[in-house]
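Q: Could you fold this chain for me?
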Amino acid sequence: MTTKIASWNINSVRFRMEIVEQFLREEAPDILCLQETKVIDGDFPAKPFHKLGYDHVIIHGQKMHHGVAIISRIPIVEDDRLDWQANGEARHVGVRLPNGVRLENVYVPAGGDIPNRELNPKFGQKLDFVERMTQWSAGLDVPTILTGDFNIAPLECDVWSHKQLLDVVSHTPIEVEALGRLQAAHGWVDLGRRFIPAPERNFTWWSYRAKDWEASDRGRRLDHMWASPALADKALSHRVCEPCRGWLKPSDHVPIVTEFDF
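A: Sure. Below is the predicted structure, expressed as structure tokens.
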């Protein structure tokens, strides 16, 4: 039996519900993790998911900002809501699958524009967020999948120009080092690069500022799917659904999809 898990920063689930439904019809993942849903729990559009057979909806919402959700065709049970931001923002929700595997859905803060915590408190909050995730990872003793919008492109080939983005938040050395410590804390396996080895092109985000995102192709790999070492060999495939960036009213992110042998 296989289980297909998708992750997508949707940048407002209500505004982009049409393409979410299109994605679910075309790709038919068993589980969809959404970030940046931008809706309180009471206003989350659960009915369209139910109509498509996704009866299990776990949401952690917030008015106008942030928000995460896990939508599933298979039974899931909410496991935790961790406040890695330390201010109550809705940036994480975790569930347990029927086989005991934990699935953690996270939306790491973008971090503002200036890569200096003294001049830009948001950048410091981002680094502290990743550090709290690192401490949590070091204590994990359950096979876990960690996915979502990490807002960090770690490798030189994870951005359209390493040289030009070295001082741009999401690809600065301090962020890359922080993400490296997070990965090492649990021995996380980066499934995106296991199946699409560096230096192959592998972007998941393109700015809205580009007149033609496809022609300029100034992308970054900000969205990730990581697995505990014990689960890594259960992954059968990993894909980036790049065509979604060209759909009607697109998010600036595209879905990533990993299939597991569960």
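A (continued): The chain has one domain: 3-260.
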